[in-house]
């Protein structure tokens, strides 16, 4: 049967996806149940060395029913930056819930003093407080639709995009940073990934010799920008303007023994994507007009890790 689910942002529906599962998942299936699992993962960020979030529970809202709540005996606390490149951790696993459509999901977060916190790369030993905006009542409400199939297990992953989620309130809050997440909810059966390599040395050398282009940012190897759809013109990340934003920004890294920098963008639904690379730091708040290299189209298939061409593109 067909399952439907959608991308989520806080209080705003960002898009729609499709998934496949078992049968009998109509809201008219009175008394029928299914089992559901929710994991959490993170799309990478650049300026933080630690983003620790302590989850105390998760609640699911059936479209025609009361909230189904799961409270954790012990908070589940992770540094979200450890959950990148396809890594994830379970919030709930194989829990029985009413089958049918759901309209909302809520993540409960412990916001007592430094239970959840961030540290910056230039101040790794200093914990900065992290709080949920007032009005959220210690919970992060995600409105949209997803479907739990009857008599089978439906597995989801919540992609916690830290780069877009952590906001500096600039002195307008008692906390140092606010957790205003930009999340994606995806079915684990309907996602694949993209991996690739970047020839940073060649790009940096070319830029340093070309006065018409700005040099790469010193001490920064760059990031791969992932956009949904083919032939997208790459733009920088602007948290104040969701239109045209990349789906995720993935820093590249150099592994021991490698000569090229590598990246992996995970939990991507099937379809066409545009990948581009920039070796200039993006402050993700204003239009930086940063330079991009090696823009290419990549097709993602469920259950497959697709290899992108090396950047700069090799003929």
Automatic annotation (TrEMBL):
* Database matches in Pfam families: DUF4382
PROSITE patterns found in the cross-reference section: PROKAR_LIPOPROTEIN
**Keyword vocabulary terms for this entry:** Signal
User: Which stretch is the leader sequence?
Assistant: 1-18
**InterPro entries referenced in this protein's UniProt entry, alphabetically:** DUF4382
Q: Which residues form the DUF4382 domain?
A: 33-181
Per its record, how is this protein called by name? DUF4382 domain-containing protein
Q: Which domain of life is it from?
A: Bacteria
């Amino acid at each position: 049967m067909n399952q439907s689910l959608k991308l989520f942002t806080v209080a705003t529906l960002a898009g729609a996806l499709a998934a496949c599962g078992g049968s009998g998942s109509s809201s008219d299936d009175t008394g029928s149940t299914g089992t559901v699992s929710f994991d959490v993962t993170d799309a990478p960020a650049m300026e933080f060395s630690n983003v620790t979030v302590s989850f105390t529970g998760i609640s699911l809202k059936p479209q025609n029913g009361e909230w189904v709540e799961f409270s954790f005996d012990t908070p589940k606390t992770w540094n979200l930056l450890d959950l990148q490149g396809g890594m994830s951790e379970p919030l709930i696993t194989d829990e029985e819930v009413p089958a049918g459509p759901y309209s909302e999901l809520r993540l409960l977060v412990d916001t007592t003093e430094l239970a959840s916190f961030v540290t910056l790369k230039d101040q790794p030993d200093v914990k900065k407080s992290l709080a949920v905006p007032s009005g959220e009542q210690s919970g992060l409400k995600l409105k949209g639709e997803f479907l739990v199939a009857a008599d089978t297990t439906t597995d989801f992953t919540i992609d916690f995009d830290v780069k877009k989620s952590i906001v500096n309130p600039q002195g307008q809050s008692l906390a140092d940073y606010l957790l205003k997440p930009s999340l994606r909810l995806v079915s684990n059966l309907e996602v694949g990934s993209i991996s690739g390599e970047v020839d940073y040395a060649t790009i940096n050398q070319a830029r340093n010799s070309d006065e018409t282009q700005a040099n790469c940012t010193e001490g920064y190897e760059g990031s791969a920008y992932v956009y949904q759809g083919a032939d997208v013109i790459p733009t920088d990340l602007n948290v104040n303007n969701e239109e045209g934003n990349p789906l995720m920004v993935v820093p590249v890294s150099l592994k021991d023994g490698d000569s090229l920098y590598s990246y992996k963008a995970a939990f991507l639904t099937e379809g066409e994507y545009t990948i581009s690379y920039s070796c200039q730091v993006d402050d993700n708040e204003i239009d930086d007009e940063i330079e991009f290299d090696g823009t290419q189209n990549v097709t993602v298939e469920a259950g497959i890790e697709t290899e992108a061409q090396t950047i700069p593109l090799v003929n």
